[in-house]
Amino acid sequence: MTVVAKSTRPKVVDVARHAGVSTATVSRVLNNNPRVDPEIAERVRASLSELGYRMNSVARSLRRQSNSVVGVIVPDIANPFFTDVVRGIGDALRDDGYMLMLCNSDDDTDLEASYLRLLSAQQVSGVIVAPADSLRSDLTELTSTGVPVVVIDRLAGTGDFDSVVFDNRTGAAQLTARFVEAGRRRIAHIAGPERTFTGSARREGYLEALAAAGIATDGALIVDSDYSEEGGYRAVRELLASSTPPDAIVIANNAMTLGAIRALTELDVDPETIALASFDPVPWSTSQRYSLVVLDHETMRMGTEAAALLVARIGEPSREPEIRRLSAGTVAVFAD
Amino acid sequence: MTVVAKSTRPKVVDVARHAGVSTATVSRVLNNNPRVDPEIAERVRASLSELGYRMNSVARSLRRQSNSVVGVIVPDIANPFFTDVVRGIGDALRDDGYMLMLCNSDDDTDLEASYLRLLSAQQVSGVIVAPADSLRSDLTELTSTGVPVVVIDRLAGTGDFDSVVFDNRTGAAQLTARFVEAGRRRIAHIAGPERTFTGSARREGYLEALAAAGIATDGALIVDSDYSEEGGYRAVRELLASSTPPDAIVIANNAMTLGAIRALTELDVDPETIALASFDPVPWSTSQRYSLVVLDHETMRMGTEAAALLVARIGEPSREPEIRRLSAGTVAVFAD
DNA sequence: ATGAAAGCGCTAACAG
DNA sequence: CTGTTAGCGCTTTCAT
Question: Domain HTH lacI-type, which positions (chains A, B) (predicted)?
């Protein structure tokens, strides 16, 4: 086995010596400062590559008092919705030279708070966070220390931040109206938690569409659930236990939709008698048995918008907080 | 709108002054150094919280020449397999006080290389990487600068690293044998790229099981594919175009399995006539129409093992590289 | 047990 | 256009 000499990384001073210039000049070359004699710059670059110089970003960050790292906190990285958002963020920020520090809060405000603290300690340039709990999540720790923050998916209760959210109300209304037009009348709703931003907005949209169509709302057709697969499963079992079961269900998120499909399959419900509509991408789903439409949210766009907002704020920390509401989206027929 | 004073963060020197001690003492308290007078330590802690001190990890990292950050590079964060692995890594490393810097190489060796460079510049304590291309991925950049590396999922071609891989050969053999025992005889295989570590191993396992059962291999039953959803879809269409179609298919990964199911559904193949087996978690899949078994790999364990290996190497950089081969896993009946 | 002081690697005034 | 120099905030010998 060959023993590789732990070749100590060359530093700017080594490069400077090698190129016969000062460290300042090397630093200028490193930062593409235009006022360096092209010939000297070339010599420095030669030394740079000859010595195999590698920047120490930690030192640079300390000196510059800013880091090219952005923190991202999501409640569940396994959820396709958030993976898409994160991809959007990553793609957009890479162009600006930022790296991502991705954290999974697991929907736990304590864990979230601890990540917030860690990110702040890491002197990240900014943080994009999908709050675990829009009411209890505490972002003041960051804002008080002047770290730029962008909130996504759910609006944060306290304070005003740059935010990117979907127009969930209109989206839900769209899905519901679609069923109405298709002649469905017993349209149920498996709702997300009332206290969540998305949950309450989607419920409102559902109710609004029913009202607009002149269909009386039936309390028995609205099941409060919790955004979990299991919750969706239980909700469907509850809805179908009724003597007058629904002929369509608007489901407030992707995980519950999977649970719902599982329940329908298990109960062997005739696909002709029921139609489903859901939010958020469900890319790994393959049930082609039950009719399912999903609201195509352009999820990655939420990420790119958030990134743009963050970059804008980093550039101008005192700008007014801006809330971007992304249009409801288009209905995508997923299976029929 | 209230203007929040951009309260400049207190530094150790501020705390020291406030507590009437030296910066060294504050630092010792910060690091739980036992040889500090308990009374003084208490006083320092009081100042710490009174002033709302927040550690600047960048400065600490520069001084300590080490960072409590670990880089993780995966080819596709949207793949449930990798999300699970990342969760495993995250959970395990959080206990050791590390944060994760997650990068998505998008199966692109160039992007991967650039992340490798960035992570190295960030002075991360170590890197866990699932190489985009086990042959062309270049990890020497890291190893030459002494950054601990753990390779997961696929073995890296050049050099020997700490690695964690599944026993893919045995796993594929297990799935295949299961079909044989169930009386199936025309068992097909939708294979991953031959040059990939997992692809070739799974193919070998499949062939091995057939040989062990004394079943002649039929070239027409083996379709080379590319691990993509679309690839799985095309493979099934190809297999079913035959006059003697398979009665079972061993599919080399989760994405191709989804494509396969889509094709079967589209062709409206009788579920009784075909059975599927797949690798990797497919948690968001909900097809209960076709019989599907998957190899339960304990995916998160790959993450925790990788984390353990990395921590071990950080602690003892000169230890011999170790390759952990995780047992094939148990067959999980996913739908029947 | 505590403090003084040096210095991690880099950048940005400031001079020249 | 280039060099000198003073730190960024923290930790850690080395004295005391």
Answer: 10-64
B117 to A57: CB separation less than 8 angstroms, yes or no:
no
**What pLDDT, on a 0 to 100 scale, did the predictor assign at position B168?**
92
Q: What is the mean pLDDT of residues B253-260?
A: 90
Q: What is the model's pTM?
A: 0.88
> Is B39 in the same domain as B71?
no
Residue numbers of the domain that contains B134: 66-166+299-327
Distance (Å) from CA A21 to C1' D10? 30
Q: Are both A158 and A304 inside the same structural domain?
A: yes
Q: Which nucleotide is nearest to A28 (CA to C1')?
A: C11
Q: Where are the beta strands (DSSP E) in chain A?
A: 69-74, 99-104, 126-129, 149-152, 162-166, 187-191, 222-224, 248-251, 275-278, 291-296, 323-326, 330-335
Q: Do B234 and B283 share a structural domain?
A: yes
Give the tens place of pLDDT for each residue, B75-91: 988 888 999 999 999 99
In a shared domain, residues A161 and A250: no
Residue A266 pLDDT: 83
Chain B: nearest CA to A274, how far in angstroms? 17
Residue B163 near residue B144 (C-beta atoms within 8 A): no
Residues 129 to 188 of B: which have CB under 8 A from any A CB? 143-146
Quick one: pLDDT at residue B288? 64
For residue B27, which nucleotide's C1' is closest to its Cα? D11
Lowest mean pLDDT among A135-139, A263-267, A318-322, B170-174: A135-139
**Statement: the CB of A31 is under 7 Å from strand C:** yes
A9/A13 Cα distance (integer angstroms): 11
